[in-house]
């Protein structure tokens, strides 16, 4: 039976790259379709994700699924092979708990801290750092959040694993994630990006840095 | 109830998130001990079991705690595999249920809470947002109820049902008293209205719903507190 897997994504989107990482972990071949999310959204995207009109969208034999974490659970259930979630229901629940924490607390707090105006920055950074500290505790001596191998939480935290340090370089503010502040979490980011299957799913560093430097310049120009 | 399968739920009677889990356990027929938390005076166990968020609900199964209502619901379904199953077997259908559950939880519930907790222009905007999202859901759930109207006979309660019914009801009387208008309008969102009607008539749901005047009092209490603290 021939199987058709496509991903509608964007090169710089951490959400889109989460899905690509999950597919690579499973060894699933897919066709990648780049969406210009800042310019014109394609009719394909609007057709397959009418509710949110966002990437990523997975198309499996023509059937669309949206929302990166929903997609990853689907990938886990559809393709056997290297597991992304633990087998044990309790451990699975813990993975989903931390994934939610990353997605609903850490990422928004980090994003607010990165882009906050100077007069609100201190408070925003404090909140974001509280999240990072809590997240760090979930590592609990393990190499990855998933244990010996990359799992759901690691995938969900890809923004922290790769994007954040590049953004800090672009903004010139290194006060969120540093080796001094969060040594174990910082070490995790090194482990994460050196993992071969992760490397294949990351955007080019220089391109991403240039992209964020341009966004920073834009933000400063509009002040 | 032996130690091998001890289930404790830390909840709060007003919390819709707590209600979802309570109903899930009842629908599955799982015996459990309920601990009512006073959120002004949280128990040491709650703080120990949910140090990250310090919130209800927390399910403790054989001494092991799980927080976050939707995570708990999936855990219950995976651990107690009897009917009703909260998620379908087919991965694609599961993805659809999770997609809409995420939509209801993150978009609809957010909007409703904003409506309850604000006034003036902010509230007006939130109302607009809420009605827009309800229309999206009305359209979207057609793929979940392809045969048209859901009917009460043999209704298999699932994840999306539990999440939706704990936040929304078809009780227009209450909505008009609290908000001055219908939130779930049978004319604007007929499918959602009939779906919620079926859900709220299920015996286990009915018997756990407080009387109308108490529900109105809850809304007013939550609203007053929120408005007071936003002025502080």
What do these coordinates show?
The complex is a heterodimer of chains A (223) and B (232). A four-stranded mixed beta sheet of chain A has the order 2-1-3-4, covered by helices on one side. By secondary structure, chain A is an alpha+beta fold. In chain A, strand 3 (57-60) and strand 4 form a beta hairpin. Chain A has helices at residues 14-26, 43-48, 68-78, 89-115, 118-139, 152-156, 158-171, 183-194, 196-199, 205-221, and strands spanning 5-9, 31-34, 57-60, 63-66. Chain A is built from ten helices and four strands, in the order E-H-E-H-E-E-H-H-H-H-H-H-H-H. The longest helix of chain A is centred in the middle third of the chain and has 27 residues, at 89-115. Chain B has ten helices and four strands; from the N terminus they run βαβαββαααααααα. A four-stranded mixed beta sheet of chain B has the order 2-1-3-4, covered by helices on one side. In chain B, strand 1 (7-11), helix 1 (16-28) and strand 2 form a beta-alpha-beta unit. The longest helix of chain B is centred in the middle third of the chain and has 27 residues, at 91-117.
Essential attributes:
heterodimer, A: 223 residues, alpha+beta, four-stranded mixed beta sheet, B: 232 residues, 4 strands
Secondary-structure topology with pairs:
The complex is a heterodimer of chains A (223) and B (232).
Chain A: E1 5-9, H1 14-26, E2 31-34, H2 43-48, E3 57-60, E4 63-66, H3 68-78, H4 89-115, H5 118-139, H6 152-156, H7 158-171, H8 183-194, H9 196-199, H10 205-221
Parallel strand pairs in A: 1-2
Antiparallel strand pairs in A: 1-3, 3-4
Helix pairs in contact in A: 1-3, 4-5, 7-8, 7-10
Chain B: E1 7-11, H1 16-28, E2 33-36, H2 44-49, E3 58-61, E4 64-67, H3 69-79, H4 91-117, H5 120-140, H6 159-167, H7 172-179, H8 190-201, H9 203-207, H10 212-231
Parallel strand pairs in B: 1-2
Antiparallel strand pairs in B: 1-3, 3-4
